[in-house]
Write a sequence for this structure.
């Protein structure tokens, strides 16, 4: 029995000693430093590389797909941020410096290239139109802007009004490049704009062909590379085309009158006299007769005036007054 107690005493002593050693080991073990919390990098876009400093179509068109790679410049933020009011955003556009830095240019190009829901409304359309005004006024002309306007025009996902605005702005941009110093960039930009505007004449089911025709006509009065005879033929073709929408046909009639295209007179008379033709189109034809017509067209217009079509009467009266004044016929 005495041996049993001695054995138990030894076991307990050993147990106490082991506990003391474990406790001391824990106290002497160095504490690992607390690691700072690291935010997850999943979905976070790395910062923009500093060597990306020239605009390229590939870079601009992929900005929105990759997400913003750089902090928006303070001058651009109110323009792109829909949390700002419409008037604030317009004011920010008009306050842009005529000499934009590359970060501003990249961000503004990306804004134009990406269709948004606000493009469906007038406020969004006015905003982008005003921005195009500012960009086209930059001196020297912005490299890459002609490609951006071309991309917007040819992107059928863009609202047709925005596409039409892009086409309209090709005219002042062409003029800007034409007045710029000689160089490969100038010539390449002009060729690109010329070809895009000519190609736009094919889109006859929207306003695009008419806008292209107006722009080309304006440029043809100054720059010999635009053949006025060919443009006159295009105007006549669009005026009588069954595939052209009414807006394009009206524009074509206007251009025929501005270009003094007498060969278009028979077609213009037919449009004006056909009762089944839409009234706005007939009004345009009557107006063209007032500019292009001869004294022989006066009885024709007087006969239409007696036809009691109230919507045509103002245009007929104006056309008759113009012809009678020009040919010294008593009113």
């Amino acid at each position: 029995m005495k041996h049993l107690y001695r054995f138990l005493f030894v076991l307990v002593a050993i147990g106490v000693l082991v506990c003391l050693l474990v406790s001391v080991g824990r106290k002497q073990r160095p504490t690992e430093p607390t690691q700072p919390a690291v935010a997850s990098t999943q979905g976070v876009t790395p910062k923009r590389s500093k060597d990306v400093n020239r605009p390229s179509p590939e870079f601009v068109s992929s900005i929105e797909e990759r997400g913003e790679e750089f902090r928006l410049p303070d001058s651009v933020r109110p323009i792109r941020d829909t949390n700002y009011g419409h008037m604030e955003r317009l004011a920010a556009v008009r306050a842009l410096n005529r000499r934009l830095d590359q970060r501003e240019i990249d961000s503004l190009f990306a804004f134009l290239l990406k269709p948004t829901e606000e493009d469906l409304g007038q406020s969004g359309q006015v905003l982008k139109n005003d921005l195009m005004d500012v960009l086209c006024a930059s001196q020297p002309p912005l490299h890459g802007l002609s490609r951006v306007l071309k991309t917007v025009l040819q992107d059928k996902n863009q609202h047709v009004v925005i596409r039409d605005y892009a086409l309209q702005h090709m005219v002042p941009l062409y003029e800007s490049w034409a007045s710029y110093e000689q160089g490969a960039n100038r010539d390449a930009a002009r060729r690109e704009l010329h070809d895009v505007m000519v190609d736009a004449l094919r889109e006859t089911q929207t306003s695009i062909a008419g806008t292209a025709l107006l722009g080309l006509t304006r440029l043809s009065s100054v720059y010999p590379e635009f053949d006025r005879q060919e443009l006159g033929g295009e105007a006549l073709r669009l005026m009588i085309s069954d595939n052209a929408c009414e807006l394009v046909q009206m524009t074509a009639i206007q251009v025929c009158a501005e270009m003094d295209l007498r060969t278009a007179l028979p077609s213009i008379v037919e449009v004006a006299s056909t009762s089944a033709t839409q009234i706005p189109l007939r009004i345009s034809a009557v107006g063209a007769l007032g500019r292009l017509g001869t004294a022989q067209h006066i009885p024709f217009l007087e006969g239409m005036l007696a036809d009691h079509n109230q919507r045509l009467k103002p245009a007929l009266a104006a056309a008759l007054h113009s012809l009678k004044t020009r040919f010294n016929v008593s009113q």
In short: The chain has a mean pLDDT of 84. Residues 2-28 form the longest helix (27 residues). The radius of gyration is 36 Å.
